[in-house]
Specification:
single chain, 375 residues, alpha/beta, seven-stranded mixed sheet, 18 helices, globular
Length: 375
Amino acid sequence: MDTAQNKMNLGRAFWERLRAGDQRPALHKPIDPQGNVGMLNAKQLQARLIEIAIGLQAKGLGPRQRLLLACPQRSEATLTALAAWMLGAVTIHIEPDMAPELLGNALERAKPAWILADSFKTIAALELASDTAVQNATLILTQGAGDASARTLDFGAIAEEGRKLRAVKVKELGKLIFSVPPEAHAMIVYWKQGDQLQAAALDHAEVLAAMIPAPASWNLKPGAVALVETGLGDRAAMLAVLRLLYHGAALAFANGHNNITIAQGARPNLIVINARALDLLLDNADKHLNASPDVRAKLKQGLGWLVSQRGDNNNPDDALGEVANTVDGWLERKLADELVAVLGGRLERVWVVAGRLSPDAEVLLRTAEVPAHVD
């Protein structure tokens, strides 16, 4: 990174990258209950981020305050993180599938002042791990705040308030964005190593230093679409998503809708995913191609069965050995040939940011001639 880049913070860096991107596609997401996909270009996404940042600031989010992203793969989580960095706030990322005891430990150490979650169900799970940490935080819900309490806010309402205040607050926001020092903390990540909880704090300069482009061999041109099917609790996943956006890729999110429907609308060149979510995505493709219950009953094949078997901790190796036999059935049905088509017709690569490819996923992708990059 050059000297000028090293003097930047994350908020300013993405502000300027999006402004330079102008009409280039930047974000694809569902726009209605049917899962139809809408697109924001870079200039529109920059405007959206400004509104979210101003809305969050109006509610009290500011420099050095900690915001936990307890949200699955949704556009709101990525946009909230970017807006928070514009304000000098610190995002908290907790590795998924952490045991309740370690999760509670992470929450108590993180002491978030704010929590972004997708639903009250997620909030309840966090409360089971650490009621105190949740009770001390202001909650933002992406799927509506209901009437739970005055400290529970609706993400859409925050963005709308920011839109109304934009004309009178944008200069103030601009000054704040430029004032955040590169050495200030940007994110704190927690993960499990053995039976121990580990943590690391990354400043703005460190995160920006990780914004290297994808390998040239991937041939990802500006405007390429990356379907994000991984949560942002994992550091590698978060950095992967940021790198793609920073270098001109458009991000696509299912936001709780059927990911096959969203893929067909956004037509991704790349899928960013963890190994388990990839199995589920391939299961969805399998179901989409074999929608008839009679056919499903006859074949008794699919990654839904694989995932349930993998959950059997008593005999995981036997389950993986047995399911390898389903590959032949898939190939007979030409699922590999149809996989790219069912995922939008342009899929060129899968980026697995966490976990190991299952044997079936590996064979299926290789047969479909879709390379998999595994971190």
